[in-house]
Fold:
Amino acid sequence: MVGFKEVREHYDFIVVGGGLNGLCAAIAAARHGANTALVQDRPVLGGNASSEIRMHVCGASQNQVKPELNEGGILHELMLDNKRVNDYFCFSIWDAVLFDAAKKEKNLKLYLNTSMYSARAEGGKVCEIECYQLTTEKRLLLTADIFADCTGNGTLGAFVGAPYRTGSEGRDEFSEPDAPEQGNNRRMGNTLLFKAVDMGHPVKFIPPTEVMHLSEEDLHLRKHGPEKDKDVLEIVDESGRKMLFDGYCPDFGYWWIELTGEQADIIGEYEDIRDDLVKAVYGVWDHIKNTDHYAENYALQWVGMLPGVRESRRMEGDYMLTENDVLGNHRFEDVVAYGGWQIDNHAAHGLLDFDKLPSDNIAFKGSYDIPYRCYLAKGFENLYISGRSMSASKLAMASSRVMGTCAIGGQAIGTAAAQAVKKGCTIRGIDIRELQQDLLRDDCYLPGLRNADEKDLARKARIKASSCQAGYDAENVVTGVSREIDGAVNAWRSAGTAAGEWLQLDLAVPAPVKTVQLVFDSNFSIEKKIALASRRQKQQVIGVPPELVRDFDIVLLSGGKEIARREVRGNWQRLCRVYLDEAACCDAVRLEILATNGCEEARIFEVRIYPEEI
Structure:
């Protein structure tokens, strides 16, 4: 009889769960030097954003209601990678982009098709996880100094006995204004998405399976026809070009086809909920196709079979984020991430709550901080809890659960884990100020914080440029904030055509220079996410953002003479690190711009200069 092959491996950091949250955590840790493993039970990465589920990434920008709050960092990098190769929203290409991002990190081992089925902890420390890789029939016994639960369901935490919650807190616990008087176990449900396309001729529909029979009265509070969009978006760019996204758009693929099941454990009922969701999806489409909903020419192109999950367990951490923090734009000294999505609390029984709107939204202006303490599992010295199961009340989680917010939280814990590994300390022993500065350097926005990196030679440099638009002075590249926010532009823009423009930083004292880091303008006012919904697709432009600088040279000067040059061609990223072949002592660093990706002028948010490779 053939037995399973047993493999034992040790890592500095193990991330369980390969959604955007876990992927960003793993990439961040690996880039900062930690020997990292990413364990994912599916064949693809991305979780709810993958080709298996196909939900677009929502975040603090609230689908461009607050464009200045778009997430940066690794998530934005992945989106720009996708824009470069995927003009027409192919989710298979997006899968490949995420796969490539993980595989190319030299310190990251990727375990796909690998399910964690057991975990062991001793004395408040996670010691080992046991996994099974379906494709290779391997039993994996994996140990690490630090673990991250990015499973969404809080599975690793639950396996080792970390405290968690389900349902809603009562109003008395946190004095949340919109909490129920008494706590309950109501949860937001799971959803299957679908996509239909106009074939240009009539297409009949015969249900391939048993369906849920739905009447117009059942769906009267759920938009399901070609009515005029209520979510009209108008964008006017700097050149005066207007983009108005409005009109008749039968954008089939509804997020509100959502069910929660009937039992106390929504996780245990997942398969039954999926079965009912299949009936519901085909029932909605049967209603649309076989009643008068102007869908005569539409045919189903894709129907999901893996439901996306909104809510299950919420782990308890050192601090629990609350509705009051969200609505009050609370600032924390240990901020490592932020949110801005509305409190988006769905109907308790989903689609079956026929007399209720599918979601109860509480909007607010601005953003709120997420403190580092929300990611630390209570009672455990080496376990991070991240994503939608991080430490938050039900109402706070209704905002923080969206993928953009989860992704930047993942980058924060991955960066923190690498610091803990490097210093040989616990996850509570890290230097939070150092972590914040690392995140800022990696293009993560933290509200109210600025670059204070003492190693950055640009902070004390004297800056000049070939030309400047009014208000977009050269000195703006060292404000310490790399986006337009709170009325401050924080950017240099040339007055003339980009080709031939230059920006020069004269160093306070001559110094060796190895790394020059640039943050270009990727235009946060235009959407960039992979999307199934045509409304979200229409918010975008083809290709990489034209505002990004494409071709440029970095020149090191000493006494006015060139001593080193590094050419960069074909850039498509917002964050661009340029490494000189070897550190050279100079008194000035000059950026010479040759071309953008289409924009007339040159645009730069930030320049940093370092004597070593970062």
Q: What stands out?
A: The first strand starts at residue 5 and ends at 16. The CA atoms of residues 76 and 574 lie 8 Å apart. Residues 190-309 form one domain.
